[in-house]
Amino acid sequence: MRTVLIVLFDEVQSLDVTGPLEVFAGAEARHAGSYRIRTASLDGAPVRTSSGLTIVPDHALADVPDPHTLLVPGGQGTRGPDPRLTDWLRDHGPRAERLVSVCTGAILLAEAGLLDGHRATTHWAYCDKLARDHPAVEVDPDPIYVRDGQVSTSAGVTSGIDLALALVEEDLGRETALLIARYLVVFLRRPGNQAQFSAQLAAQTAQREPLREVQQWISEHPGGDLSVESLAARARLSPRHFARAFQTETGMTPGRYVDRVRLEHARRLLEDTADGIEEISRACGYGTPEAMRRAFVRTLGSAPAEYRRRFRPAPLGPIRPEPTH
Questions:
Q1: Which of 77, 134, 194, 226 satisfies CB 3.0 to 4.6 Å to 110 for a cystine?
Q2: What is the mean pLDDT of residues 49-53?
């Protein structure tokens, strides 16, 4: 029996709580005795989430034994938290076998000194703050979640579900995690090193219409001629002017943007289709499987075939929810 304790406080983000809770509850429903889930606030009093939802905790923090997995959600309540909460985390966090945060819950762990010397992430909007306020933490702003020893941190909101599914997979196996993912109608395909943003969201949208049209063209034609010269002609600019304007308005060079779009498209095809590696490499503009392999290894640390084996599981049969009583 692994106890999972979810810490509650006023102005918590409700989905940071309920997303992981549903994952662990789903695992317990399918494997009775696998998890015991508890929620607790400082005094055991109900808390009001940032969206106005009221959650009634099971316990006061002082009354719960040290858990196997201690999960700290984020939300507006992480700004200027009650010092008693930070003190409790500092005292009890090291006793948990796993420390987990969702979104800005990482800030609470950092303020308790529990992320010092660890690699961690949080919501993209707060990564700079986390790095600035806690220089002993190695902040990685890109992944949707990071696992470093006993400490696991995730980015904004829904990534807490991804991380919880990864923990269930570690505890109970991939098939159980897949069943839960399908029941919740989410994908068990987002690896921790997946970027918080798609290529289109990671870059700013250009202000000038010709450059916006070029961004759209790149996304719709990853296998086309996406050289600077070709894209500049489409924008009716000289190559030099186009490259400078594109970087100024999007914060990314044309080549970098094209690389991200092609990699993202290749990943989707590997995950969602049975197309061959050679066919995908042509469709995404790599030209050869070797060129695509180099791009995958450089960015993701695994070759396309290995990526497909890890993130395109065999289909499962229909889910029949087990009775809860």
A1: 134
A2: 95
**Taking the model in full, what pTM does it have?**
0.68
228/125 same-domain check? no
Query: Is 59:44 a contact under the CB 8 Å cutoff?
Result: yes
Catalytic site includes residue 103: yes
Answer for the pair 2, 36: CB distance below 8 angstroms, yes or no.
yes
Copy the structure tokens of residue 53: 């939802």
| Strand locations in the chain (E) | 2-7, 35-41, 47-48, 54-55, 59-60, 69-72, 98-101, 119-120, 138-139, 145-148, 151-154
CATH of the domain at 254: 1.10.10.60
Beta partners for residue 145, in sequence order: 154
Domain limits for position 58: 2-183
pLDDT digits (tens, 9 = 90+) for 56-68: 999 999 999 999 9
Active-site residue, selected from the candidate residues 21, 61, 103, 110: 103
Q: Tokens standing for 36?
A: 């015991």
> How many of the other CB atoms lie within 10 Å of CB of 61?
20
